[in-house]
Amino acid sequence: MSILDIVIAPSTVLSKKACTVLNIDKSINSLVNDMYDTMYENNGVGLAAPQVNHSLQILIMDCSNRDDSFKPIVLINPIIINYSEILNTYEEGCLSFPDQYFEVKRPEFVKVKYLDIKGNSKEKVFNGFEAVCVQHEIDHLAGTLFTSYISRLKRQIIIKKMQKLKKILNKAI
Predict the structure, then answer these.
(1) Among 85, 92, 103, 137, the one annotated catalytic
(2) Fewest CB atoms within 10 Å of the CB: 41, 45, 109, 170?
(3) Strand 87-94 to strand 58-61: parallel, antiparallel, or no bridges (unpaired)?
(4) Does residue 41 carry a catalytic annotation?
């Protein structure tokens, strides 16, 4: 297991739709384990494969720091099949946008169909913060970033900040 590099926006891998996983093999299991290590190392609660430069329909979540009953979960090829018409506003952050937080309105709950790590088809209803997290990560798989939910002016300012950060990080290497 290892810590993977987080892709900082803007980046092509973050802005395109990720590929469907056709076969859950050892390489997928290894990637998922590395994603967990990476997420925990960076104090995240969710991580999508494109954020670690793998354009695959895989996301992981661990919201247990907010809800002890929540267990870490892997969702492969997730699809939202139902959602609440009631919207809640939460402040969201993103590992691909370090130290940037915005209020985003999202459905209060979502029902998601997905494959688990063993390839079994599952459906699960996510509520509250878990619903926010799963929607944020599914957005990543579609090439949509949480900055899509803010004004164009704010988005442009944040992208410029991220471009400066990337230059600083590249010089440090």
Answers:
(1) 137
(2) 170
(3) unpaired
(4) no
pLDDT tens column, 52-110? 999 999 999 999 876 667 789 999 999 999 999 999 999 999 999 999 999 999 999 99
* 143 touches 18 (CB < 8 A): yes
- Asked if pLDDT for residue 141 goes beyond 90, the answer is yes
Q: How many CB atoms lie within 10 A of CB 52?
A: 22
HEC string of the chain equals: CCCCCCCCCCCHHHCCCCECCCCCCHHHHHHHHHHHHHHHHCCCCEEEHHHHCCCECEEEECCCCCCCCCCCEEEEEEEEEEECCCEEEEEEEECCEEEEEEEEEEECEEEEEEECCCCCEEEEEEEHHHHHHHHHHHHHHCCCCHHHHCCHHHHHHHHHHHHHHHHHHHHHC
